[in-house]
Amino acid sequence: MKHKHMKRSMALIMAVVLMLSLAACTGSKNSSNKPNSPPADNKPENTQNEVKLNPDEPGWKLDTSPVEMSWFVGASWYGRSWGESLNSKYITEKTGVKVNIEVPSGEANEHITLMMTSGKLPDLITMGSWETAVKKLWEGDHVYALNELADQYDPYFFKVAGDGTLKWYKQENGNTYGIPNDSYSPNLMHETGMTAANQTFLVRKDLYEDMGSPDLSTPEGFLNALQLLKDQYSEYKGQPISPFFAQGNVPYGMTEYLQNLLAVPHEKDGKVYDRITDPDYLTWLKTFRTAYERGLINVDFLVDSDTQVEEKTNNARYFMMVREWTGMTAVNPMLAASNNPDSYYIAVDGPQNSKGDSAKLFPGNMDGWMVTMISKSCENPERAIRFLTYLASEEGQRDLFLGQEGEMWEMADGKPQLKADMAQLLDSDIEKLEKEYGIMDTYWMMRNPVIVDQWRPEKALVIKQMADFANAQADIDGGIYKGLDPLGDSDAAVNWARISQNWEEVMPELITAKDEAAFDKIFEGFLARRTSYGFDQVMEYRQGELDVRKTKMAE
Prior knowledge:
Residues 1-43 and 45-49 have low confidence and may be disordered. The strands form 5 sheets. The protein has a 5-stranded mixed sheet with strand order 2-1-3-13-4. The protein has a 4-stranded mixed sheet with strand order 8-11-5-12, sandwiched between helices. Helices cover 47% and strands 11% of the residues. It contains 24 helices and 15 strands. The chain has 555 residues and is of the alpha+beta class.
């Protein structure tokens, strides 16, 4: 009996061993198709065998289980969060995606560069299209190619991202790594009349009109108005009036922005033009020097912190501003509703060139404003690309912009329309609208103006005047010139960074120069240093970039 029992036991053991061997062989064969190492080119593993992908259906609907993602927004001033507003809660409930928004405490480039060094990046990254870190993210293989993710997880992306956008941002290797917001093509602007121009020259309405609406387009008129301000309007509510403000001071407001007001050309005879040496531009820099010498302006417009600028703007303590009107959409209604309802700002003709030409303001362009990417630190790239696809779609744009139907908007005459209480908040308290409800431009990171602008209520007069003025002076075909400067770690980019830094240091010296001869000497010194820093290489890069853009636009 014992012997028979042992024979049965041995048979069972042999059977188990045989089964394990077969299992091991099968497993070995299967594992040859799924190596432990990352797929070639660090591409995400293909899961098309697990789910049936339909290029005509959004992929986010395949999985709405809860998932968290970090989203870095490269703007230190951005003050919105996800999960507190009604709209963000609605989108999370709908898609399953909960977002944790991160913003830099200081310079976005430095912040994201440190993250690249550490090897741990946020899941989603939104950075200014002009930022040097964007190229570093692409060239350093820190972010996924969106076209590859879409191929594998959500081909519906190609329907909503826009072929023109993908083509514009396509790199030499054929991949596209970022999707922009606020992107416009010249053809679209010509067809719709929407230019997205937001550069304006603003003045405080009551002071300007009380002065008799002086001509600010010539150096003489500009200086005379500043003298009148000093003599008769130097204080407001017991506080000194700041005569002038330039947004982004040296690198933006006092350079390319002022050059656009002066209609300084970007190219001549097909060659990139050196705008900083333009005679009209230099004439106006010398006008600011004269204003400083006469005590009509001070250097606060070059040194004021963001907090100081906000405080002065909210209290109508600037007279003139080189400023984007979009930054005044909350301030102007507030000033118009104050005890001094004419203390808001209006757009007028500011500095002009010696020919008296109208400004040529930057319109929207294919680059857009910021680009959003998916980092290779993301543990759920399939959910990330599907979430971006959803946000880029008309459905996602409507959800982001208007919120939940019935709660914040309703259909009227076949068109989505904000409910009355939301429209009232839009006019009177944008802060509350964005913080509590999270609609309109609260989450602008994936905003497509071609879609959402059709749902915007008519602008209040105090905003519409500025917008119309900018729109009328937009250089629709000029968007191709925006962002020609080299970015990244190339020699040309390093040269340009050094030149730009020196220009920021030189500008205050030019404005405060004791006389015109001192101005000329300082400027000549800058040009000499600029040459030694490799400016010829920068110009060569700009020319090459412009030629490439012209080719893309012609495709």
